[in-house]
Write a structure and sequence with these properties.
186 residues, 2 domains, two-stranded antiparallel sheet, Putative transcription factor mafg
Length: 186
């Protein structure tokens, strides 16, 4: 029992240890541990070190025994955490498990932020895509109108040229010039 914090350090994870002994679970085997509030670990991952394994459930128990919530654990600085660990007289394995839990929770937060940003960016890019698509459609419609105007002017020019030639209103040089223009743009 730590006189400063009133925490019985010897009992950290003792319920987990007892349940492991009853089930015959070796502390180094992979096993999915419930980590509370419906959250599970993927592929049974858990805190590991050279001396053996500490399930994350034990790290949550340590965290609760220290009177820390998940958000407090994530938001506190490493220095503050080290002071809390020192005053609670946690052994090395418990300290590593607690720090692993903190890092895991921080990584989950970073991943959630990344997913949120990605969703927001995707929405923004889809809006941009629709804006650009509408602009392209407007340009295509304008292009079609201009092409129709050009075709109309060509028809008018060809008809006017034919009428001028038919009524002998142009000289030979003018006819050759306008015929060259007409062939060039056909």
């Amino acid at each position: 029992m730590n006189s400063t914090t009133g925490i019985n350090v010897e009992q950290f994870g003792s319920s987990a240890t007892a349940s492991h002994a009853e089930t015959g679970w070796d502390s180094c085997q992979e096993r999915q541990q419930p980590i509370g509030a419906g959250q599970g670990l993927q592929n049974g991952s858990q805190a590991r070190n050279n001396e053996g394994c500490t399930p994350l459930g034990d790290a949550f128990a340590i965290c609760q025994a220290l009177g820390l919530t998940r958000s407090e654990l994530v938001s506190m600085s490493v220095r503050q955490l080290n002071i809390r660990v020192r005053t609670a007289h946690l052994d090395g394995q418990q300290t590593r498990a607690l720090k692993h839990l903190r890092r895991m929770l921080k990584n989950r937060g970073y991943a959630a932020i990344c997913r949120t940003r990605r969703v927001e960016q995707r929405g923004y890019l889809e809006e941009q895509k629709e804006t650009i698509r509408a602009h392209i459609e407007a340009l295509e419609a304008e292009n079609d109108e201009i092409a129709a105007d050009i075709a109309r002017v060509r028809r008018d020019f060809t008809g006017l040229l034919a009428w001028c030639i038919e009524h002998h209103m142009l000289t030979v040089e003018e006819i050759q010039f306008f015929e060259g223009l007409r062939r060039e743009y056909e």
